[in-house]
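Sample entry (267 residues):
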Amino acid sequence: MKRLLSILTILILFGNQAYCQDDSPYTTSLKVDAPVIAAGMGLSYYGLTLMHDKEGLTDAEANALQKSNVNGFDRFSAGWHSESAKNISNYPLYGSLAAPVVMLLNDNIRSKAGQVLMLYVETMAVTGTIFTLTNGNVPRIRPLAYSPDAALSDKTSANAKNAFFAGHTAATASATFFVAKIFNDFNPDSRARPYVWAAAAAVPATVGYMRLWAGKHFLSDNLVGYAVGAATGILVPQLHKKANKTNISLVPISSPEYNGAVLTYTF
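Predicted structure, serialized as tokens:
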């Protein structure tokens, strides 16, 4: 949440640029998108409280955990626990969160900095909402809780029940696929597009592997986190496109009487 607030502050500083949309592939409106961002951040905070308020395992429950109780798809990683992998996973996460700022080095994108940053904050707010509300309501035990080497305090904390789904993976995928989508739409003729998309796919996959190795999440948790993050990173900008090649469009509308948005589906 603190990172999103910082990004929102930057967005406000660039706010005057958000409406210079004549040569942008996107249409945004502060009157429409700002409430979506605010709602997303508020719901993310509420979800975080649900995650923190979970009731942890008792000592007896933690000591009685058996790998055989884990579904066959995920069982191979039950008991994995690596502090080094956990620490390493933070670096690509933080790097991906900063990637949209680096993207402003592109001439086509830099002229629409305010609009792009608004879309980024909205993307991360939506991802945060889905992640925290899901995680806050699904008490899945982390793989490290099955490790005999993990501290009992780690197994009995509320955080030990926050396995589903992988937040690091989701946030990273959301940021990297957002970057790829924005770059693709602002530079449709660039030969660099395949490499940007490849990097967007590789970075969250690396984070997911590190989180798996760290014992923070099972494979299924990472797969869901990857899918949610990638989908959000692509769909939020896509829904704001002027020439939306999908059948779905989200168009801000404004008049002296009201402000809002129209979501349409063309058959």
